[in-house]
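Justification of computing resources. Each target in the renewal requires a structure prediction run like the one illustrated here; the chain below, 226 residues long, is used simply to show the kind of job we budget for.
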Amino acid sequence: MSSIRKVRIKIDDLEVLADPEEKVLDVCRRLGIHIPTLCYNPLLPQERPGSCRLCMVAIGKGEKVYYREACKTPVRSGLEVHTNTPDLHSLRRDIVEFLLARHRRNCWDCPISGNCPFVELCRDYDVECLTVCAECPLQGEECLLSQGEICLGPLTYFGCGAPCPKQGHYCFGCRGLVPHEDIIKSAVEVYKSKGIDLQKVVERMELFSYSSEVIEKFCEIAGVRE
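Resulting structure tokens:
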């Protein structure tokens, strides 16, 4: 039996006992309370860089609330923690968008496509900055683009679970085309690298897309006509 005297803390209005050496994230995981993480590795529990900042929680109440990384914040007697508030959701959403802005989104040629943690984070926080390629399980020579097929995956919003590529069919862009210029530029480059006819890509876009703005922007960047 442990001789360590436990401290009483409150997490989301639930009073719990914790060991003084525990961090807030440890207690939450023990209780089954979900807090998103990226940089935390449970196999290396002593290494807690807190660099992704996704595990931010609110400490205190009322006007005396401040935000700290759960993976690095030690418990103490009387600590009051909130893990799921509207302000926290907004903060984490901003963090996801920031991380994505700094992330190379070459999802069509990424070894973890189909099992990408960013996909779940974007889905949880309603961030539409990833394409179908991020959730497509087809990689390398299995990629439809590598087979010369005109797939709109590099231009299409993620979120469908990529059932079309799983069945070996084309991605028709049924969820709509991503309007971000950096996504379009990346898509043009990948189509060129795979030897895909850009004019045929435009034809496929016109057949299944409602966004003339994206098509016009693609044509301008790709140097082709509608």
